[in-house]
Design a protein that fits this description.
D-Maltodextrin-Binding Protein, domain 2; about 300 residues; two-stranded antiparallel ribbon; 7-stranded mixed β-sheet; single chain; alpha/beta; Arc Repressor Mutant, subunit A
Length: about 300
Amino acid sequence: MAERALDLGWMRIFAEIGKVGSLSSAAAALGLTQPAVSYQIRRLEEQLGISLLTRQHRGVQLTPEGQRLFEIVAKGVDDIDQLARRLRSEVERPSIRLHTDYAFSALWLIPRMHAFRLLYPDMDIQIVATQRMERDRSGTGDISVVFGSRAEFGRDARMLLPERVAPVCSPGFLERNGPFATPADLARNRLVHLDTAAPSPWFDWRSYFAELGIDREVYSGQGDLRFNTYSLVVQAALGEQGLALGWMGLVDTLLSTGILAIAGPALEAPDRGYWLLQPKSRTPQSEQLGAWMLAEAGV
């Protein structure tokens, strides 16, 4: 027959007795009566078949067996207490989850997060970045920043960054291949493209040149580069690999520091851009994060 497992309700009591060396002091620390503490220890000794304590004139002393048990129990109780504190802290800390795409998170959000941390140091933020955002996340309880047109989102959506693009390149590339006095000059050079699985919902080189009345096919064969994430497009431009379309708001810091330079005329699509979507059930955390992003974007 299997041995009956020990009831572990005595562990905190025994750990406290071993720490203070007194039944009465342990009882006072735990909010119990001394008879209740003595009863728990007697039951434990009966189940183990050994003596754990030696009663003295003042207090108690652990027997060798009791000392061995105390070392294990004290560590176990302390580990459990520390875990409980961490779990409570995680539950009590305010938190928010933000969904967006790789470009916005890497080029706009992350460089500004330190400023947000200074305002709200106790808020936990989980940033969920994906290649292409789902259009409707408003029912998830999370906040989202999504690229699209005004018609795609409800009236509660707030425009963060309207779409405005301009050709950009490194100063070194501009010096070697520029100046680009006309759009045709741009079309004659190597371009860095952002590929999309579906028709592009934003300006790409084809639509950019079409707006300016240029047929890029006439100037094809320049050894263009293509990437499926905008961060890599920007990295290629920084590496003097060609001309890229720079989204104002995402590459502003790179332009202001002179790491990138504008190489051609800008185009705008005022009804397109990055939109802030609040959840249907707003929380103080979503309100604070949303208000901060709007302020950072100058809205």
